[in-house]
TrEMBL record:
Substrate binds at D22, L23, N24, R37, H60, L61, G62, R63, R119, R156. One of its GO terms (cellular component) is cytosol. The gene is pgk. Pfam families: PGK. This is Phosphoglycerate kinase. ATP binds at K206, G294, E325, G351, G352, D353, S354. PROSITE patterns: PGLYCERATE_KINASE (PS00111).
Length: 395
């Protein structure tokens, strides 16, 4: 795999370099609540800019539906990137249209541009190879070399992650290399007990991973939006909680095969609405009222999870235990995160929101062995899957 250092050694003065970053940061309106993913890619952007490249950064933000949606504009990210780099950033209001072309053409050596959200274009995430390829052609036409430093998106077979690499000389950025190196420690023979903690809201993505991960781990603790499909599979009512109805049978099968290694919450903070000021109570996990939704794990669950973590030698955590962005539902995430910081072993937390939770809840970042920018990407890597973005860089 060629790397950014190889590209820098070739010389980039005056060359247009397309940098795929994962700038999918959490937003509250248009305010960035955690800029960790922007900071993570700064060394790459800075190195290219200082070497005289014309740097064109691209990223997705959220999951817009293949068309422009102002809610998911990268404009606030451009402003923050400019502040952190301490230089003006040219922002294109489209990704491969007139604005992007004119911004790319107007860059001088060392200049940095950010293009609008890749996912405003249906071709980016299309399952149709020709449609994806056509979009990748347009992206590739903007530059002469491609650097992938979007670790958080390397598990996606998307145009900017996969197809564009086949169209330009391609190089792995420092963030991607470092993440693969550190996470590699978990793919061999991790010290045991090996405990994985899963939560968050990308339920269908992550349920698919559990199957492959289960034989490798000693305990799998499931909280967040993930746990309700399992609770339902055990025959409990989950009210209006997040539920992946077509995965209930899969969860039942996983519970049967896990022989007690899957640990579920025993209590839940159930709320009348998805809002900070909603009525809420701690209820038993098998007693969620029909008109309520579970927005956090309860204190007994935190204690149960902490007990399972206490003797662990290796821990991987992805996905908040609750809606930590709203204060009444942050205790579960905080409690489990604190338990992980006390583990005497190698601990990794991965995922845009999980890493943001560590920082915004004021936990000690140094107490974790590694904070990864990728949740789904880390999980699929741990699962032993070939990640499309990595495969594309290797070809
Ligand atoms: N019980 C729940 N119901 C709905 N959303 C939840 C619940 N628990 C956690 N979440 C949400 O999950 C989101 C993060 O999920 P995800 O993207 O899977 O994690 P990560 O970015 O760390 O990989 C957070 O925004 C959080 O509010
Ligand atoms: O936030 C991300 O992943 P994560 O929530 O698994 O950490 C990445 O930006 C990938 O986003 P996606 O899951 O919408 O493809």
């Amino acid at each position: 795999m060629k790397t950014l250092d190889d590209l820098l050694a070739e010389g980039v003065e005056g060359r247009r370099v397309l940098v795929r970053a994962d700038l999918n940061v959490p937003l509250d309106g248009n305010k960035i609540t955690d800029d960790g993913r922007i900071r993570a890619v700064l060394p790459t952007v800075r190195a290219l800019s200082e070497a005289g490249a014309r740097v064109i950064v691209v990223s997705h933000l959220g999951r817009p539906k293949g068309a422009p949606d102002p809610k998911y504009s990268l404009e606030p990210v451009a402003a923050r990137l400019g502040e952190l780099l301490d230089r003006p950033i040219a922002f294109a209001t489209d990704t491969v249209g007139e604005s992007a072309k004119s911004v790319a053409a107007s860059l001088a050596s060392g200049d940095v541009a950010l293009l609008e959200n890749l996912r405003f274009n249906a071709g980016e995430t299309s399952k149709d190879e020709a449609e994806r390829g056509a979009f990748a052609d347009e992206l590739a036409a903007l530059a002469e070399a491609y650097v992938d430093d979007a670790f958080g998106a390397v598990h996606r077979k998307h145009a900017s992650v996969y197809d564009v690499a086949a169209r330009l000389p391609h190089f792995a950025g420092g963030l991607v290399l470092r993440e693969l190196e550190v996470l590699g420690k978990l793919t061999g023979q991790p010290d045991r007990p090996y405990v994985v903690v899963l939560g968050g809201s990308k339920v269908s993505d992550k349920l698919a991973v559990i199957e492959a991960l289960l034989p490798k781990v000693d305990k799998l603790l499931v909280g967040g939006g993930m746990c309700f499909t399992f609770l339902k599979a055990q025959g409990h009512e989950v009210g209006k909680s997040l539920l992946e109805a077509d995965m209930i049978d899969t969860c039942r099968d996983l519970l049967d095969r896990a022989a007690g290694r899957i640990v579920l919450p025993v209590d839940v903070v159930a709320a009348s609405a998805f809002a900070a000021d909603a009525d809420h109570d701690v209820v038993p996990a098998d007693g969620i009222p029909a008109d309520r939704l579970g927005l956090d794990i309860g204190p007994d669950s935190v204690a149960l999870f902490a007990e399972a973590l206490a003797g662990a030698r290796t821990v991987f955590w992805n996905g908040p235990m609750g809606v930590f962005e709203l204060a009444p539902f942050a205790a579960g995430t905080r409690g489990v995160a604190e338990a992980i910081t006390k583990v005497d072993g190698f601990t990794v937390v991965g995922g845009g929101d999980s890493a943001a939770a560590v920082r915004t809840l004021g936990l000690d970042e140094e107490a974790f062995g590694h904070i990864s920018t990728g949740g789904g990407a880390s999980l699929e890597y741990l699962e032993g899957k070939t990640l499309p973005g990595v495969a594309a860089l290797e070809q």
